[in-house]
Amino acid sequence: MFSQIRGKISNNLQGIILAVILVVTVVIVQVTMLRYQNLVPENNYQDRQKDSKSMSSRGRGAFWMEYDNGSLIDNSLVQGWDVTNANCSANSSMVSMPWFAGVGERIQRFLLYRHCRYFPMIFNHPEKCGEDIYLLMVVKSVITQYKRREAIRRTWGQEKEIRGKKIRLLFLLGTDSKGEQQAHHQKLLEYEDRVFGDILQWDFEDSFYNLTLKEVGFLKWFSIYCQSVPYIFKGDDDVFVNTDNIVEFLEHSNKEDFIIGEIFKNAAPIRNEKSKYFVPEVMFRETFYPPYLGGGGFLMGGPLAMRMYGVSNELEIFPIDDAFIGMCLKVLQVSPMHHKGIKTRGKIDYIKEKLMSKDPCLYHNLLLFHKLTPEKLIVMWKWVKSNIICPNTNQNTTA
Fold it and tell me: What are the TM regions of this chain, as residue ranges (predicted)?
């Protein structure tokens, strides 16, 4: 009798244990699915296919004349950042080129690693595009420029809603180029990202010639995580941006395949080896670069950014990032547009600064001004947000 009771108890215990295991398994699966949904904005593969087809049908035409369907990357199949290995060896075959010795040390180093395009991510925030985002503000920065990032967060980079339209902020960074301070700076950046959660960092050395890596890295990242975001602002960390004016401009633009800023036409490559903008003829033989926009800041449609990702994979990396964007636009047969309210050409001189301090209304009419120290950026923001009444405050919100 006791053995029968023990048998029944044993069977009951086994049933209870199996039930507990089943419940735990279901919970783990559900949590995993929720985490996956947070990381990947798209709901499922069929929805991604449908979104991709609808985007393609809206804007093909002349933009895609040089491309067959087979040459384009199917973004709908990408589920996350897929680069996990930073081991990129030098292309030693370059050394044997007869012209290699004459291009200078900086260009030599660039050419040796030119084929290295995508890198692992140290900090990633796909959740930035997980909501119904209207405008993604993307800022190129370096580890040591914390004060600039903090000034932007306190001023025009505040994550908020303007007339119901959600705005989010991201900073694009590589790694520190100073060997002995690298670990220290990286620890500080890790803490900064833990506090603010707005940094995308890739595992490549931050340098002038590597700015283009931020361009292609961001285009790939955007195509993976932000397919539903309609508008992007992209700029440097020393600019003033009037966010309200930008939103007002976008509300009246009704365009998706556009890119607008301060346009540069007939810009010739610099052949002076002492200049940081030096480009030897072996890399670019044409007289002028294609039209491009000043990298201090510009606006573009999200669908265009995804098309640019496709063509950027067909082009060799170029050391001047602004010119590289112009090359992508040329392939797409998209003409950049000029906006009179975007000023990217340089600092305010002493006289203009005095005049503008007496008439802060001049700032109210701009979309962007380059370049400013963090301290002056905060002062300018206070002027713009003051309760002064300015005539014709929308005169520069149209192109």
Answer: 12-34
Spatial contact of 399 and 340, defined as CB atoms under 8 Å apart: yes
CATH of domain 92-337: 3.90.550
8 Å CB contact between 240 and 369 = yes
Question: Using an 8 Å Cβ cutoff, are 247 and 163 in contact?
Answer: yes
- Rounded mean pLDDT of the chain? 81
Nearest to 353 by CA among 374, 376, 381, 387: 376
Report domain extents, the chain.
1-39, 92-337
Q: Tell me the CA distances in angstroms from 395 to 39, 173, 249, 263, one per residue in order.
A: 41, 35, 11, 19
Tell me the C-alpha distance between 37 and 75, whole Å.
17
Give per-residue pLDDT as tens, 105-149: 999 999 999 999 999 999 999 999 988 999 999 999 999 999 999
Encoded amino acid at 229, one letter? V
A 10 A CB-CB count for 138 gives: 20
pTM: 0.78
Is the dihedral angle over the CA atoms 193, 381, 163, 395 positive or is it negative? Answer: negative
Q: CB-side exposure of 25: number of CA atoms within 13 Å?
A: 6
User: What single-letter DSSP state applies at residue 209?
Assistant: G
Residue identified by tokens 């002056």 is: 376
Of 92-96, 114-118, 192-196, 355-359, the least confident: 355-359
Q: Taking the C-alpha atoms of 282, 287, 291 and 296 in order, what is their torsion angle to the nearest 10 degrees?
A: 60
Quickly tell me which residue has 């990217």 as its tokens: 344
- At 390, the pLDDT band (50, 70, 90 cuts) reads confident
Mean pLDDT of 64-89: 59
List the one residue out of 34, 33, 30 whose CA is nearest residue 22: 30
What sections of 40-87 are H helices per DSSP?
45-59
- Between 50 and 15, the higher pLDDT residue: 15
Alpha-carbon dihedral 203, 207, 210, 216, rounded to 10 degrees = 60
Q: Which two tokens mark 220?
A: 């790939």
Helix, strand, or coil here: 186? Answer: helix
